[in-house]
Amino acid sequence: xxxxxxxxxxxxxxxxxxxxxxxxxxxxxxxxxxxxxxxxxxxxxxxxxxxxxxxxxxxxxxxxxxxxxxxxxxxxxxxxxxxxxxxxxxxxxxxxxxxxxxxxxxxxxxxxxxxxxxxxxxxxxxxxxxxxxxxxxxxxxxxxxxxxxxxxxxxxx
Length: 157
What we know:
Elements: H1 4-25, E1 34-39, E2 44-45, E3 51-59, H2 67-72, E4 75-78, E5 81-83, E6 101-102, E7 114-122, E8 136-143, E9 152-156
Parallel strand pairs: 2-9
Antiparallel strand pairs: 1-3, 3-7, 4-5, 4-8, 6-7, 8-9
């Protein structure tokens, strides 16, 4: 049998290892250089219309953020399913040829420690199938490899 002091030291080492592993796997301890916040003045949309939403990008870094690179990597999460932009040969589900994301001012960068609001049109050029856009209550969010927005509930009538 092992000496009681060895058992105690082994137990402490195991607990310490589990604590450190838990911290490195916890997403709240890793911080993205920006935050994505989704909101809308409208909660109810007509079936077949584009949903006009606002995407606030909060640059928390000390460096400029390239909005074009950020927007190119965004994925729309509609009712828990992720949709990437449709291929250029695909037509959007709603038939509209508008860009999925637009900026009122052609931004070259998002400055450090600042907030910029961009327009988001859903489904826009995202390959969301028509059956997913039925009347009822839906959740929408956006995400990329680094950050995810809040989920926004919308109603389609």
